[in-house]
């Protein structure tokens, strides 16, 4: 009963926009990333002494990013991929995902990246609704997730559409809590708790599930579109979601998913020279620290207005007063 109340409060809170209009984040630097074999940057995380990235086109590697003020270089760290566990997804969706992976590359479709205080990297697979952990030595293993995770998500209206599955992951520094973001139609947040070597839905996995449609920024037209999450990050005991339709980052309550405040990056993303030939947002990766935010762009092989076709990482300054400012 308590969990049901929390979920209801989360749904109500999430339906209410932040009290103030989103403040625009200030761009500090922009970096084109060279060396990502398949391109399609889909996750970012700061682990140890470096920023790491993952691509949804590569099943056997992470990328360590390095460079100065301009172009960055991606250095691949390969790992041996174990066979994925049973996902609990319907046969038809699994087959459609398999065919898609054969055509475009990336059978796992890794769509998010997080890191704990020990340097373990966590990758969420959209294709298999699973989480792969890669330790600092490069050994990979799939986490033991509860069989009820996918069932609860689907019962709440999430994970029902092809290519609209788990899109983001956040793990707290102690690796005791893990949040997964369902992308769209319906978008939502789920939480798991670790007990020894396995993960559990403590009173239920679903924090929030949101449907409906929203208008994009005026520069992208007036056609209502289903909002989505493309990344989730954990910082200073708060969750932060990356919301590409509105081109914003929102701070949320970890226990309910309720939104507290949002910040916009629309001025940067939709500036004339950075525009892609699509009406959908292209921001896919998010990592926060006290000084600012890293946002990664998955251009999906598209060329933007200035001719750049490589993946992009933006560095934004933290807002005045920090990420936990009221």
UniProtKB/TrEMBL annotation:
<keyword id="KW-0732">Signal</keyword>
<feature type="signal peptide">
    <location>
        <begin position="1"/>
        <end position="20"/>
    </location>
</feature>
<dbReference type="InterPro" id="IPR027372">
    <property type="entry name" value="Phytase-like_dom"/>
</dbReference>
<dbReference type="Pfam" id="PF13449">
    <property type="entry name" value="Phytase-like"/>
</dbReference>
<protein>
    <submittedName>
        <fullName>DNA topoisomerase IV</fullName>
    </submittedName>
</protein>
<keyword id="KW-0413">Isomerase</keyword>
<dbReference type="GO" id="GO:0016853">
    <property type="term" value="F:isomerase activity"/>
</dbReference>
<feature type="domain" description="Phytase-like">
    <location>
        <begin position="39"/>
        <end position="186"/>
    </location>
</feature>
């Amino acid at each position: 009963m308590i969990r049901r109340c929390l979920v209801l409060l989360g749904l109500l809170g999430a339906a209410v926009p932040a009290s103030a209009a989103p403040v625009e984040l200030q761009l500090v630097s922009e970096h084109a990333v060279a060396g990502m074999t398949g391109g399609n940057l889909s996750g970012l995380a700061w682990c140890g002494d470096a920023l790491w990235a993952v691509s949804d086109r590569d099943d056997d590697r992470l990328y360590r990013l390095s460079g100065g003020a301009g172009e960055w270089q991606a250095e691949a760290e390969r790992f041996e991929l174990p066979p994925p566990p049973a996902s609990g997804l319907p046969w038809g969706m699994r087959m459609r995902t398999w065919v898609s992976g054969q055509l475009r590359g990336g059978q796992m479709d890794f769509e998010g990246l997080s890191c704990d205080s020990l340097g373990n990297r966590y990758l969420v697979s959209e294709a298999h609704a699973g989480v792969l952990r890669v330790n600092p030595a490069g050994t990979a293993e799939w986490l033991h997730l509860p069989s009820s995770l996918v069932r609860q998500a689907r019962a709440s209206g999430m994970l029902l559409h092809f290519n609209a599955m788990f899109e983001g992951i956040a793990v707290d520094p102690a690796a005791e809590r893990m949040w997964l973001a369902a992308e769209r139609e319906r978008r939502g947040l789920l939480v798991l708790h670790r007990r020894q070597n396995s993960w559990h839905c403590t009173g239920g996995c679903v924090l929030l599930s949101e449907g409906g449609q929203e208008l994009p920024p005026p520069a992208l037209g007036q056609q209502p579109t289903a909002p989505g999450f493309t990344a989730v990050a954990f910082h200073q005991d708060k969750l932060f979601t990356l919301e590409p339709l509105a081109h914003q980052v929102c701070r949320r309550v970890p226990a309910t998913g309720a939104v507290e405040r949002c910040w916009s990056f629309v001025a940067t993303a939709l500036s004339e020279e950075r525009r892609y030939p699509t009406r959908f947002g292209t921001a896919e990766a998010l990592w926060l620290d006290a000084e600012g935010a890293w946002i990664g762009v998955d251009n999906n092989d598209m060329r933007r207005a200035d001719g750049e076709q490589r993946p992009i990482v933006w560095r934004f300054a933290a807002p005045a007063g920090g990420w936990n400012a009221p």
